[in-house]
Amino acid sequence: MRWLRYGPDAALVECESLAEMSAVRAAVVAAGLPDLVEVVPGARTVLIAARPGSTGLAQARELVESADLDATDGGESREITIDVRYDGEDLDLVARTAGVSADEVVELHTGATYTVAFTGFAPGFGYLTGLPEPLRQSRLDTPRTRVPAGSVAIAGEFTGVYPRSSPGGWRLLGHTDAVLFDSRAPRPALLAPGDRVRFRSIR
Q1: What is the reported pTM?
Q2: Per residue in 67-76, pLDDT tens?
Q3: SS3 readout for the chain
């Protein structure tokens, strides 16, 4: 783990793995340090910003360096269920690559509990970890120029839902009518880091 100053009142924590990043984020968020104004996780980093002139950064660093990150509890998290119609363009491709049937792909995807590790790419897009090993497949060789909003997809170790129409190279399993981002809502993004997510198959 490496701490890099990110301006006068912030630091970027570079982590060795996604698991370490999640543990650092959880430890800092759970502590509720009053002088921290933002904690932003990434795939292997956590950006920590403090109030100008405060000791928030020093407190956060002391906390993280003294914490048992292997035993860090993410604390209370929301549990969200997303209904999915598994009719994606790449469902059969995913099945062939995994060496299973399309129905077994659906069973694998709906049978797991996922955690939102971080968000990015587009407002409301959450990178969800916990994908079963057979579904950990590469991105498409040629990305699509347009992926419909609500598309449920997989790539590498992640699964996620496209909150709006955009280009993308993830393999599409299906689609949902759930609203992932609404700028007018009190809580614009449906998913936030630390949330637990389940997918439920509907017809």
Answers
A1: 0.84
A2: 877 765 555 5
A3: CEEEECCCCEEEEECCCHHHHHHHHHHHHHHCCCCEEEEEECCCEEEEEECCCCCHHHHHHHHHHHCCHHHCCCCCCCEEEEEEECCCCCHHHHHHHHCCCHHHHHHHHHHCCEEEEEECCCCCCEEEECCCHHHCCCCCCCCEEEECCCEEEEECCEEEECCCCEEECCEEEEECCCCCECCCCCCCECCCCCCEEEEEECC
